[in-house]
Amino acid sequence: MIDPVVLRLSGITKRFGSLLANAGISLSLHRGEVVALLGENGAGKTTLMNILFGHYVADEGTVEVFGQPLPPGHPRAALAAGVGMVHQHFTLADNLTVLENILLGTAPLWRLSLGRRAARARIEALSRDFGLAVHPDARVGTLSVGERQRVEILKALYRDARILILDEPTAVLTPQETEALFRTLKLAVAKGLSIIFISHKLHEVMGVADRCVVLRHGRVVGEVATAETDRHRLAALMVGEEIMPPAVAPPKPGPVLLRLDRVTTPSQGSATGLRGVSLDLRAGTITGLAGVSGNGQAALSDLVSGLVRPEEGRLELAGAEVVRWTPRTAVASGIARIPEDRHSTGTIADFTLTENAILEGYRSRFAKGGWMDWRAARAFADGIIATYDVRCPGPETRIRLLSGGNMQKLILGRVLEPGPRIILANQPVRGLDIGAITYVHSRLLKARDEGAAVILISEDLDEIMSLSDTVHVMSEGRLSPGFARGTMSQAELGLWMAGHGFADAA
Amino acid sequence: MMSLFDILLSATFWAAAVRIASPLIFATMGELICERAGVLNLGIEGIMVIGAFSGWITVWAGAGLWEGVAVAMLSGMLFGLLHAVLVVPFGLSQHVVGLGITLLATSTSYFAYRLILPEVTSPPRIEPFAVWEVPLLSEIPLLGPALFAQTPLTYAAFAVAALTALVLWRTPLGLAVRAAGENPSAVDAQGLSVTGLRIGAVMVGSGLMAVGGAFLTLSAFSSFFFEMVNGRGWICIALVVFGAWRPGKAVLGALLFAAFDALQVRLQQTPVGQVVPYQLFLMAPYALSIAALVLMSRRAEVPAALMQPFNRGER
Amino acid sequence: MRLEPVANPSALRRAGLPAAALLATIAVASGLAAVAGADPLATLGLIVKGAVGSKFAALETLNRATPLIFTGLAVAVAFRARLWNIGAEAQLYAGAIVTVLLGTGAVGGPLVLPLMALAAMAAGAVVLLGPVVLKTRFGVDEVVTTLLFNFIMLLFVSYLLEGPLKDPMGMGWPKSAPLAKEARLPRIVDGLRLHWGFALALIAAVAVWVIERRTALGYEMRAVGLNARAARFAGIPVDSVLVKTALLSGGLAALAGFSEVAGLKGHLTLDLSPGFGYTGIIVAMLALLNPLAVVPAALFVAGVFVGADSMSRAAGVPTYIADMLLATSLLFMVLAILLIRFRVVRG
């Protein structure tokens, strides 16, 4: 017996100017089914979901929920019809409690009471039924990432969602938290809910989905039952070609260039600080830092970038302890810094490419006696554009008009051109397409082979494991011992990510 | 000559403090509502002026006092709507637009004043709200005259503060407004309109600011003067910060501030006041506001999305 | 509705939208004149005539524009670094006080004028330093503190004029003693009522433009204003840039006070500035924060004020129409500038 269709998207087409974001996409979801929606960044997944939720209006095509067509362009319609969405970037207010976040928008605005008591009872019941433990009166800002995701799911369930859409739900979870999420999803399916699971992590998709729909360049390029396919075939469908893992030559480790000796840094708000971290970075190696985001990677990145100084412990550069540690001295010490957020930290959107290219070197290399040497600056920018293949109308273009990949290439050029000894790459390929990813990775490997010490911070275990000569795991501000390439499995690293194995683990 | 001790024990002093606090409470609640929804409203100073003017001119033209309050509120809401439309859907700089609104509302008041009363040298007076003594309660020593022998607008100020707290923390609407100031994406994801909530909050808040201004003409001075608001709006912005964006604490801040203001007026009559230039006393409220801002700077719980425009396309 | 970025705004868009803002302002002006019972076209004509219709009128406009160029530059330079200096009024009076202190006989000789100007700039810079240090050290919003400082400063001036600085020959009026003759800014051309303060304002505009475009400090100020987080990450010392910006901005505003006292009035009174500090914000915004454009913007604003004064005497429309027009032009202009780079789309 085939279960009834609960959600049907037919012939969805959406154009943004000349870009065809969705081209005649059709998709159906049956009761009690988990469908994985696969695709690279820019394949059209997000646009499709925004259309379903009425944030965009499709140029062509219709959306039906439980047989009823949804009126286009009405954000409440999908919610009212029983579709709930768990966004990749949580839509929670940190300063409100769990209860308040769940209640938001559930009652008519003009009702005179929030009805907290009844709501609390209902939330506790849902928590029990779906295995989503979280305290209703906790402030969301105090919760872990995994707990926040549970709040997001509870929000949907509280609204009686019968269809759940999860956008990249595992990107922020440890492998163990991912397991717990999958148990929750199985409970939900058993109760007759249907789930769309958006992801690009193929091994997870294989574990949880009944059926996979693959998008590429806005089109459905494949639809297969999970049981009848394998990871390699799905990967090929997603990318349109076989992805080749980068060829990595054996490292030639040199002297220690940067040493952290039991460094502790203060926590800033909800961002974890470092707790007694020791780390040696050797010339000619890539050191990967794995871990769920929010476990001290930002603190370590800030420390090496010069934004933060050690509260306790020592930071040594080429054997000497640093004094007066600032971003400027970090740059002057030969550290290339590729920041996590290229839009808000790495570049100034309304500056031109030239102005962005000289952000770090303007005082030392492009100004004399306080006067700017714009001719030299322009030549420097021209050089980066040519060498790093930055696609742009010219060096006087405002950088906000560039794609993420081209923006990242300009940052690469800015930090690599001076010939750095140490490279800090924090999430260097997040949000980039395959071509740009391959390019960034090859540049990092080239720098390693030329003798630089590279720190690679990433949430993507596959990326860490394929590039790093040594892997460390971060958890709650602590750093695991280093594991040489190939000595640890994903599952073993996952245990460390969940906090097992650390000396002071509770 | 009175000593400081005598001043602090006199009922008239506390009655004056509560009276001085009343317009501040209205306007502070107005600003608090705006900021809770994520919008800084620097139009406050001008909106208080237009409230003071429009309420007064309405009564002067023959309407009742409460009608004057209503007209003041409506005119405040009108300028609030203008501010909101420019800064919410269009996301323009809340600083620049707010100052523009202050200039526009102030000059509109003065323009209209000169238009209606072209030749007058001293503005006509109106019959203001009378003191309404609460039976029995007003007989309590010290507290009675201070709290229960005031004009109806003062009682209304405290009622508005209580209502603000109640709505913001006890109703679905208040929750949605606060969420709009904390994380507009969360509001949007629940299918509520961030734009609608913010515009509504700014309009209601601006209406209250205007009533605060109207208090000056309809309950305190019985007439309209240029420069009569005299920085009270800016002080209210400081009071919102001082009150950590909570109505109860903000009311306490306004009372504390008003007590100091009442005190400095009385201190000018004491032997100290004969020696110290009076300008120093007049500076005290502004200096106090700055001090309060510095004092609270470290532990203020500012709404997370204050001054952050929300445009869904940029997510 | 939603805003969608326009990748490469056309020339029509760049020129047409600000022009539309100007037209809308003129429409509002006509409406206000009609409300006041005057003929709209005649009223507009009277404003223009009052601003530039005669040699006297034009000189009056230039004189009125002089302090506005200084305060406009002060605001433009601060806003460029996203330092919200709303306290140009206080800094202007600080400059005026120092000008009077030095100019009424305390110092003499040929260098008295440059000395007064520099000392005035230093005083204005110090006045803005307070709020900026409160911002960088304690995170206190400078909008409110600079606003509140304006009130404190005016009361301080009032105290000075009734106390230590009171003119003994002033017949009891709260005004300072007049400046010595050598401490007065001479006229640019004999017989024309225009003093060297105007020339100094033009030089200041060019100097600020050069600083912003050609120096490392200018680059730092623009970077901090556009994205302080990225600037800090790149190694730009954000707090120190803000302090330097404040010194420059406060100094420029103080020059307005210096120029008004030494060039125009010859003494200090409580009504030295009819809100030049606040009007500087409008000038700076109309100039899109471009230092060179501050000059025409200040001339426009001064012309509206001078023209409205003259029109008011003739046509009976209240002179406050000038402030209303400037407020509307400010709001229309910021909207127009936004719409150059974004278009409004549905859904």
UniProtKB/TrEMBL annotation, chain A:
It is found in: Cell membrane. The keyword Translocase applies. InterPro entries: AAA+_ATPase, ABC_carbohydrate_import_ATPase, ABC_transporter-like_ATP-bd, ABC_transporter-like_CS, P-loop_NTPase. It is a peripheral membrane protein. GO terms for molecular function: ATP binding; ATP hydrolysis activity. SMART domains: AAA. GO terms for cellular component: plasma membrane. Residues 7-242, 258-501 form the ABC transporter domain. Its main location: membrane. Keywords: ATP-binding, Cell membrane, Membrane, Nucleotide-binding, Repeat, Sugar transport, Translocase, Transport. PANTHER family: CARBOHYDRATE TRANSPORT ATP-BINDING PROTEIN MG119-RELATED (PTHR43790), GALACTOFURANOSE TRANSPORTER ATP-BINDING PROTEIN YTFR (PTHR43790:SF9). This is Nucleoside ABC transporter ATP-binding protein.
Automatic annotation (TrEMBL), chain B:
One of its GO terms (cellular component) is plasma membrane. The chain crosses the membrane at residues 39-62, 69-90, 96-116, 147-169, 199-221, 278-297. It is found in: Cell membrane. It is a multi-pass membrane protein. One of its GO terms (molecular function) is transmembrane transporter activity. The keyword Cell inner membrane does not apply. Its main location: membrane. The keyword Transmembrane helix applies. Pfam families: BPD_transp_2. Keywords: Cell membrane, Membrane, Transmembrane, Transmembrane helix. This is Nucleoside ABC transporter membrane protein.
Automatic annotation (TrEMBL), chain C:
Keywords: Cell membrane, Membrane, Transmembrane, Transmembrane helix. Pfam families: BPD_transp_2 (PF02653). The chain crosses the membrane at residues 62-79, 91-109, 115-134, 143-161, 194-212, 278-308, 320-342. One of its GO terms (molecular function) is transmembrane transporter activity. Its main location: membrane. The keyword Transmembrane helix applies. GO terms for cellular component: plasma membrane. Signal peptide: none annotated. It is found in: Cell membrane. PANTHER family: ABC TRANSPORTER, PERMEASE PROTEIN (PTHR47089), GUANOSINE ABC TRANSPORTER PERMEASE PROTEIN NUPP (PTHR47089:SF1). This is Nucleoside ABC transporter membrane protein. The lineage of its organism: Bacteria, Pseudomonadati, Pseudomonadota, Alphaproteobacteria, Rhodobacterales.
